[in-house]
Amino acid sequence: MRLLAFLSLLALVLQETGTASLPRKERKRREEQMPREGDSFEVLPLRNDVLNPDNYGEVIDLSNYEELTDYGDQLPEVKVTSLAPATSISPAKSTTAPGTPSSNPTMTRPTTAGLLLSSQPNHGLPTCLVCVCLGSSVYCDDIDLEDIPPLPRRTAYLYARFNRISRIRAEDFKGLTKLKRIDLSNNLISSIDNDAFRLLHALQDLILPENQLEALPVLPSGIEFLDVRLNRLQSSGIQPAAFRAMEKLQFLYLSDNLLDSIPGPLPLSLRSVHLQNNLIETMQRDVFCDPEEHKHTRRQLEDIRLDGNPINLSLFPSAYFCLPRLPIGRFT
Ligand SMILES: *[C@@H]1O[C@H](CO)[C@@H](O)[C@H](O)[C@H]1NC(C)=O
User: Fold this and answer.
1) Which PROSITE patterns match?
2) In whole angstroms, how far apart are CA 235 and each of 18, 152, 211, 240?
3) I want to staple 209 with a disulfide (CB 3.0 to 4.6 A). Which of 102, 229, 301, 322 is the partner?
4) What are the residue ranges spanned by the domains of the chain?
């Protein structure tokens, strides 16, 4: 009898400790995953939930993400030691701070951006001191930039979100043939020289939402992901057949602009075209489907958004036969 009582007490105690320790373990596990203060995680592109298509997360340079977690602890040290030789450092090279093993990318905090940028115009600008350069990625978010800074030749990923850049010049990306992604979300860009992106043959993702663009420049044909949401794009600002040669284009996000027509012809590679909240009133019957070819030629294009436009989609019943799904929008 006493043994039985002891056993049930033991069971109770075990149950208690078991449940009590569970949340603690869970909490600890979460804490370990959380960035610590000073880790500079705010520069990472991983929180861009709003504009993520299915694969946007997959193409993020995860190797760099790991590097960043590795070097978090060294941040304060590097910051202090690497600021001194600012004037002599060429921005085209990856700089290595004294005391940091040479294989490490330089980590600096972008806190001195305003100072350095205003005192050192144009060449000689130590981009990797005001921005964070990690491998082939350059992070320049939210440091009051007014221009694209000179970039290291090997730059493949550029993030310069939340700045005050108003213009992109033809020479800004000249010779940066390794660039795969340019993210200039949330700037004041109202003009882009026509040649600014044209020769960037490696460019896959061009991300320009929340700017003031009325027109698009010539785009390189390798682009897979084009995001120009929340600008002032007009149909006259998009060249006729601007997207036709872009045979890798999968995501075309042009919502919340001033377009009054659907820009066509659209490449067959498209999976997603967002045109909601524009001024589209009508459409060409062949903008999606080729009336000559009675086939389901657009199996990929599953996501067409035309809601928030004055168009009555019921008026174009013959425009959708090749699509796997009807567009989203007003049908009555
Ligand atoms: C939209 O078009 C359909 C088909 O012609 C028509 O029946 C409907 O009344 C139209 N709706 C509006 C709001 O104009």
Assistant:
1) LRR
2) 64, 35, 16, 9
3) 229
4) 2-65
